[in-house]
Amino acid sequence: MQQEALGMVETKGLTAAIEAADAMVKSANVMLVGYEKIGSGLVTVIV
User: Fold this and answer.
1) Where does the record place the BMC domain (predicted)?
2) Which among 16, 25, 35, 41 is most buried, taking Cβ atoms within 10 Å?
3) What pTM did the predictor assign?
4) 3 found inside a domain
């Protein structure tokens, strides 16, 4: 049985968000759901 979970990483800047998303997708069996710009340079990546 496959279990599902939601993971979020908040970074300061788009470059750091892209690097975090890239590392998560390459190292685990996860799917990138999306991202959201919060403000003040904060970006949340959702997997």
Assistant:
1) 5-47
2) 35
3) 0.80
4) no
